[in-house]
Backbone:
C-alpha cells in the first residue's frame, strides 16, 4: 500500500493549450501527491531523483545540486530550480540524511518525499515515473509547458553547470537532452587494470560508432561531437515534450531508455550533449538492473577469465550506418527503422569481432571518410541500391521500398553485453 494521496486533477488542467489535453489529464491523474509546497512562480527547472538506501552517496549529490551555477559561473537563482527527492522503500538512514541536508542547504529548494511502494512496484522504474509525473503536474499548475524536467541518480554528481547546460541545449532548439555520464575519476582510477581497459575500449567503440553515424546520417539538432547515452543519470525533457511522448512508460528497469524512445518516436528532437556532464559511482552492486554496475561487473568477469569482448564488426556497422544514411536522405521527415539505428547487442553470428580490433578499423574508416562530402560517402550505397542490393534491409521491406516503420531502437547501451 502506498503512503501517498492523488493530486486533485481539477487544479492541474487549467490553461492547457499547447499539448494534448487528454494526455495531460491522464498524466495529472496518475501523479501522486507528495505533500509538496506549491511550486515557486519563477520555477523553470525541476530536478527529480529516486533514492533507495543511498545513505553513503546522497550528500555528494545534494551538495552538487546546491552549488549549481550558470554558464558565467554565477550561482543559479534559487527560485529558478528545485529538487524533488523520492525516498522509496528505504531501510537505512537515507531519510535522516536527507532531512539533515535540507537543514544544511536552506537556500536550495529541496523537497523530500517518502513512499512505500507495494512489492510489484518497488523498483526504480515506478519511482522515476512517479517523479516525472509530479514534476509535470507542477509545471502544468504554473501553465509552463517549456518547464524543464531533469533527472539524475542518487549515486551521481552533476557538474556545477549541469542545469545551465541542459537549459542552453533546450534553448538551442531541442526538446530533450541526454547528458554525458562519466565515472568518478577517483573510482575509475581504482578499477582493476583489466576492467579499466575494457571500460575505456567501450567508450572508444561507442564514440567511434557515433562519429561514423554522424558521417553517414548527420542530424542537424544532434551533431557530432555527441555520445550514445540517454540514461537515468542525466536526462532532461520539457513538460510539453513529455506530454507529447505520452509520459514515461512503466518499466522495472531501462525506464530511461523507454522514455528516450517515446520522446523520439513522438517526433521530438533529442540532443546527446557532450557539454552536459554527470559523474557517477563505479560500484559493482547497483540499484537498477542493467545499469553501469552490471556493466562493470561483466567487464570484471571478462577480464578475470581473459575472455574476448565481441561487438558488431566494423564492416557490419559501416554497412548498417551507410544504409541508414541513404534511408534518411530519402525519408527526411520520417523516423528510421530500428534495424538501421540499433547497434545489435549481442551481434549476430558472422557479424561479431573483438572490440579492440574493431575500434582500430572504425578509426581508420572515419579518418578516410572525414574529408569527403556526404554525397560521396553515400555513393557506394546508392550504387548498390540501384542494382537491387541492400546492405541491410529492415524486416518486411522489399528492395526499392521505403520503410515507414515509426520506431527508433535503443542506441548503443552503456554495457558491452
Residues:
Amino acid at each position: 500500500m502506498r503512503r501517498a494521496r492523488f493530486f486533485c486533477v481539477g487544479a492541474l488542467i487549467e490553461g492547457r493549450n499547447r499539448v494534448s489535453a487528454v494526455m495531460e489529464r491522464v498524466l495529472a491523474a496518475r501523479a501522486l501527491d507528495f505533500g509538496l509546497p506549491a511550486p515557486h512562480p519563477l520555477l523553470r527547472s525541476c530536478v527529480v531523483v529516486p533514492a533507495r538506501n543511498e545513505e553513503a552517496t546522497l550528500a555528494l549529490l545534494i551538495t552538487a545540486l546546491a552549488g549549481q551555477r550558470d554558464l558565467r559561473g554565477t550561482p543559479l537563482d534559487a527560485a529558478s530550480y528545485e529538487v524533488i527527492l523520492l525516498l522509496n522503500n528505504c531501510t537505512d538512514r537515507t531519510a535522516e540524511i536527507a532531512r539533515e541536508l535540507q537543514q544544511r542547504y536552506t537556500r536550495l529548494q529541496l523537497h523530500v518525499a517518502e513512499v512505500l511502494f507495494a512489492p510489484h512496484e518497488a523498483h526504480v522504474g515506478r519511482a522515476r515515473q512517479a517523479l516525472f509525473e509530479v514534476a509535470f503536474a507542477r509545471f502544468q499548475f504554473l501553465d509552463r509547458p517549456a518547464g524543464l524536467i531533469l533527472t539524475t541518480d542518487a549515486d551521481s554528481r552533476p557538474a556545477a553547470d549541469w542545469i545551465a547546460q541542459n537549459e542552453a541545449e533546450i534553448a538551442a532548439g531541442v526538446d530533450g537532452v541526454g547528458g554525458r555520464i562519466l565515472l568518478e575519476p577517483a573510482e575509475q582510477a581504482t578499477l582493476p587494470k583489466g576492467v579499466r581497459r575494457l571500460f575505456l575500449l567501450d567508450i572508444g567503440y561507442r564514440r567511434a560508432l557515433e562519429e561514423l553515424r554522424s558521417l553517414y546520417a548527420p542530424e542537424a539538432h544532434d551533431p557530432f561531437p555527441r555520445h550514445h547515452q540517454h540514461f537515468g543519470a542525466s536526462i532532461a525533457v520539457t513538460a510539453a515534450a513529455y506530454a507529447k511522448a505520452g509520459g514515461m512508460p512503466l518499466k522495472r528497469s531501462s525506464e530511461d531508455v523507454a522514455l528516450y524512445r517515446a520522446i523520439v518516436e513522438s517526433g521530438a528532437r533529442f540532443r546527446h550533449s557532450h557539454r552536459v556532464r554527470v559523474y557517477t559511482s563505479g560500484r559493482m552492486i547497483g540499484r537498477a538492473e542493467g545499469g553501469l554496475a552490471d556493466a562493470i561487473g561483466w567487464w570484471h568477469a571478462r577480464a578475470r577469465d581473459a575472455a574476448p569482448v565481441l561487438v558488431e564488426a566494423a564492416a557490419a556497422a559501416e554497412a548498417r550506418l551507410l544504409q541508414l544514411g541513404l534511408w534518411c536522405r530519402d525519408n527526411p521527415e520520417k523516423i528510421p527503422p530500428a534495424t538501421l539505428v540499433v547497434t545489435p547487442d549481442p551481434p549476430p553470428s558472422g557479424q561479431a569481432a573483438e572490440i579492440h580490433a574493431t575500434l582500430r578499423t572504425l578509426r581508420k574508416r572515419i579518418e578516410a571518410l572525414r574529408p569527403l562530402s556526404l554525397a560521396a560517402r553515400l555513393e557506394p550505397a546508392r550504387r548498390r541500391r540501384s542494382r537491387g542490393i541492400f546492405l541491410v534491409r529492415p524486416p518486411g521491406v522489399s528492395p526499392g521500398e521505403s520503410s515507414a516503420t515509426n520506431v527508433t531502437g535503443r542506441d548503443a547501451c552503456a554495457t558491452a553485453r
Residues 1-19, 393-417 have pLDDT under 50 and may be disordered. DSSP finds 14 helices and twelve strands in the chain. Residues 231 and 256 are 5 Å apart (CA to CA). Residues 310-386 form one domain.
